[in-house]
Amino acid sequence: SIDGLEDGRHPSWTKLRLLRSVAEAGQYAVWADADSAIVNPSITIQDILAEHPKDVLVGQDPYGLCCAHIIVRPKFWTHRMLAYWWALGSVERDQRPQPDDKLEQDSLKLLVLAFPDVSKHVGMLTKRHICQSGIPDSGHWAIHVSGGDTSHQVRRLKAHGWKTT
């Protein structure tokens, strides 16, 4: 089993442990899922943070909050929230048409909806920052190519000019 996931959680939960350890070390933490890519490195994390004053920033998809991209400021509140998020564990998933995995983002959605203090500190990256469908333009920081099989994802990246080996 993956270290720390003996309780049977989906592997997506590993990002919480990583984000928390980096933030506790006093560093900004940035997570991007394996099915995403930074497409415009000229947009810096500092640029994004300057636009969004919240302590935890997450992406969004057609179903709302999406944890494919997370930016975490190294603050005490952030450490505490990540610990609560981990402690909450898996909850019933939202209505995405995906396999029956209980993902970490479902638990974060519950925390944001149920606790005003959490919603005060958690914000969503704009669709301008994360391209969820179609081909990203020069204004996008990242692309998330979730859904479909690997060949679909590769075709999307190639259409953007990415070269594969």
Provide a quick synopsis of the model.
This protein is of the alpha/beta class and 165 residues long. The chain has helices at residues 14-24, 45-51, 76-88, 104-114, 116-121, 150-159; strands at 29-32, 36-38, 56-61, 64-72, 122-124, 130-131, 142-144.
Keywords:
165 residues; alpha/beta; four-stranded mixed sheet; three-stranded mixed sheet; 6 helices; 7 strands; 18% strand
Describe the model.
The structure is a single chain. The protein is of the alpha/beta class. The protein has helices at 14-24, 45-51, 76-88, 104-114, 116-121, 150-159; strands at residues 29-32, 36-38, 56-61, 64-72, 122-124, 130-131, 142-144. The protein contains six helices and seven strands; from the N terminus they run H-E-E-H-E-E-H-H-H-E-E-E-H. It has a four-stranded mixed β-sheet with strand order 1-4-3-5. The chain has a three-stranded mixed β-sheet with strand order 2-7-6, with no helix packed on it. Strand 3 and strand 4 form a beta hairpin. The longest helix has 13 residues, at 76-88.
